[in-house]
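Hi C.,

You asked whether I'd gotten around to modeling the 483-residue construct. I have! Everything is below, sequence then structure, no commentary in between.
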Amino acid sequence: MDMMLFAPEIALVVTGLAVMLIGLFIPTDSKKILGYLASLGVIVALFLTISSLGTEATAFNDTVSIDALSQFFKIVFLVVALLFTISGIKYTEGNSHTEEFFALGLFATIGMMFVASANDLMILFVAFELASLATYALAGFEKKNAKSLEAAMKYFIIGSLSAALMLLGISYVYGATGTTSIPGIAANASILASSPMGIVAVVLLIAGFGFKIALVPFHMWAPDTYQGSPSVVSALLAAGSKKMGIVAALKVFVVALIALKADWQIAFAILAVITMTYGNVVALNQTSVKRMLAYSSLAQAGYITMAFVVLTPMALGGGIFYALSHGFMKAGAFIATAAVTYMVLSENKDSTDPDHIDNFRGLGKRMPITAFSMTVFVFALAGIPLTAGYMSKFILFSSTIQSGFVWLAVIAILNSAISLGYYAKIVKYMYFLPTDSEKISEPLPYVAALVIAVIGVFAIGFWSEPFVYWAMEAAKVLIPGGM
């Protein structure tokens, strides 16, 4: 077995261990270097992943596969991790637990990457839990902040429940087919389809993945967790962990359980409609920007779930492409909120709601780079042309119409129109409402992360062809013969 197949993961493991060890022997004032080291490790892993594009191989008795799908999502996870580590340099400034913050982020990313490569349900589950355990701790990183501890506790309890449901569903699949191999289950899916255990397994797995992706009504943890967690961590959760759930669901339902399509396709259609509608409608009345972005994230998950309903190569490619676009847009929006939080707390360290929308008043004057970036991200999330969000919605919605699901596309388009209401409200506060406060210096790490995310949003919007091609190649792994 060629260990170079796992060079990106090895690079992150080495970096995570190095960050932990070095952090033990240097004073708190010098720990900023750990953020730069973590960022360097992610860049190396990203370079190794990009350089191995086109590789197809399996390892560990075919339980792990390297293919276009896994490579695509690894790039998504590494891009989000890079934004996380860069912005974390400022967030952890002066924090004695800096090494733990970055190490947990790196280990969470490793778990996400192995989920993308998993070719066996047991490997997928263990990798899922590796990522989840790290993010549980990150959600409660601010130990003296009651909201952060509440976020971590809710995330842990609901996450544990979803893991139990998922594992129980896997056990039913194994009981019927005698294997946990994803290709093996697909080959024996007729046995599962003819057994009552198949229906039970589908219900349990939909519930388990519904929690991970935050589909309504399995979403109850997401708004509180995204609001209570540090904004930089919320970026990792919304842009990284959610995509982990999506790629895992693609492997389980579209590959392993495709013979039971009639049982789960309608369920995903209902979940997609309810999720996108509920997320957008509830977001309209939010005053917390992080909570607003959380409900927006629900709506975006609803859009991506449309790919599970349509199931054509173009729709699946569109859903995969949307995952990349959403990684830049949503991570960038939360990092912009982190910059505003820094501004508010630097002026009033006792503020209990630094992400309140009133704190965005006059942001275009006070923090012009942050305000411009936030404007790009929210308009991209709304699907405004020339952005990544527009191209993602265009491909996904048009494929839905071409496949005859016109009603589903119409609901999605109407929901996109609704979302403009709360996205425009943020822009209104930043540019059209006055403030007496003076301009402040914007922290370089936040600015660097925001610039990278803005470039990603515009690059995918203006020069979408290669990204769409990579997404379509990834979709071919799911349905190599078409559908």
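If it helps when you're writing up: Residues 175 and 197 are 8 Å apart (CA to CA).

Thanks,
B.
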